[in-house]
Amino acid sequence: MLRTRRLRKSEAIRRLVRETILSINDFVYPLFIEEGTNIETEIASMPGIKRFSLDKIAKELDEVVALKIPAVLLFGIPSAKDDEGTETWNENGIIQKAIRFIKQNYPDLYVITDVCFCEYTSHGHCGIIYENDVDNDATLVNIAKQVISHAKAGVDMVAPSGMMDGTIDMIRQSLDNSGFANLPIMAYSVKYASAFYGPFRDAADSAPTFGDRKTYQMDPSNREEGLRKATFDDEEGADILMVKPALSYLDIIRDLKNNFDRPIACYNVSGEYAMIKAAAEKGWIDGEKVMMESLLSMKRAGADIIITYFAKEAAKVLNK
Ligand code: PBG
């Protein structure tokens, strides 16, 4: 008889033949930073995750560094919004201040910024509205302004998430022409129009006030289009290709891993976090085990980098 169970007999042999190893080195931890003072607001649908003002964030950053998490991904919540999201390129905007604060006080912590407009526009869409839809090429001009202002503040990597065509080309050229040829881009390449972003939109106050994001984010039915989109970003010079969400899109992560010679990232989004937290709170699942198993599945699918709200908790488990 052909027997597979021989190599499962004890923990020692299971360790020897283990194919996928999750590591703290894989994690990026998202942070919500709000304009103002004395803010430390728990997000109802994301237990354990908070919005911080800059004066309150040191404790959180100390913990991230102590846990040896290599990187954070910053989201800003401004005090004022307008039609275009002009606050995104204000050199004293919340993200610019946050980048400077972190690089000054935690120089070894790698800082990535989410480059988008939805938290900054009065209508909640990811760019400039023209005739009830986001105008692609007009938005690209503002993306360049936003990216350059992050670069000047000292960011380590930018991650455009708005799904406008030509984004990577526009950013690469702008950075190169402004003396930032060495600043890398992580492209939200295959980002689906997903209901799993629900809790994030509460957290970042970024839900669209009309319509949805289906004219720019991808249809969850499409797999081959994902490869096409990633090909464009790859050719335009993205350094890292990302798939988002993660859990319902493990097939897409594997597609990218098999087809591109670039590091692949995935974003374990807010709704995926909320589901596990809620079921664990009810005592219906073992939250810690399900967390580790789902992160492992992303790595096994092919993700080299996992952006996750679980980063701190998972790091504690891995440090045990
Ligand atoms: C901004 C952005 C979103 C997320 C990351 N960047 C929201 C959206 O596209 O509506 C979602 C992250 C999450 O759900 O955890 N465009």
Which regions have little confidence, pLDDT < 50, spanning 5+ residues? none
Helix content percent band: 25-40%
Main pleated-sheet profile: 10 strands, mixed
User: By helix and strand content, what is the structural category?
Assistant: alpha/beta
Describe the structure.
The structure is a single chain. With 320 residues, this protein is of the alpha/beta class. The chain has one domain (21-318): Aldolase class I (TIM Barrel, Alpha-Beta Barrel), CATH 3.20.20. Helix content is 38%, strand content 17%. Strands 1, 2, 3, 4, 5, 8, 9, 10, 11 and 12 form a ten-stranded mixed beta sheet that branches. The chain has a two-stranded antiparallel ribbon with strand order 6-7. β6 (129-130) and β7 form a beta hairpin. α3 runs parallel beside α4 and α9 runs antiparallel to α10. The model has no long low-confidence stretch (mean pLDDT 97). Ligand PBG binds at residues 114, 116, 118, 126, 161-162, 197, 200-201, 206, 213, 269-270.
